[in-house]
Structure prediction request, 152 residues.
Amino acid sequence: VRPVSQRRCLLPVRGWPSAPGDEPAPHPVQGVSVPGREGWKISCGEACGLGLLKLGSGVMGVADIVILIWGSVVVFGAWASWTDDYDEYVADTNNKNYCAYEPMMYAFVILIIKWVLIPCMLVLICFCGCFCGLCACCCAVCAPKAGAAQTA
Prediction:
């Protein structure tokens, strides 16, 4: 059995090193370079594309929060006077808000789920951050000191 440092991945991906020190596999068509993979560095175009994706992700996150707040104001604000009976709405249009049952329930349930998931995600992020910090501390304590004699 070869040492761990010399073992290759069971499912190697062409062009990606599988073990420390491995060189990337050559491209299947000789003489053709893979764009953006010269020296395994991200090119300027790739960095620009990744930056645009991060920007788009941030904009979508802000838009999702704005839509969540707006939807909450509209749906929860109309909840007290909501009716799915059109005849009841026509009889008292000043005090009733009409919406069919399915769309109102769908909007209400989606908003409740989102408002419940937001704090759950924040708690999960905090736990993951604490766990990563704990792992980093354990790795720092358990790692061999530089210059210390290593025994085999």
About this structure: The chain has three helices and two strands. Residues 6-13 have pLDDT under 50 and may be disordered. The two ends are 18 Å apart (CA to CA). The longest strand covers residues 82-83.
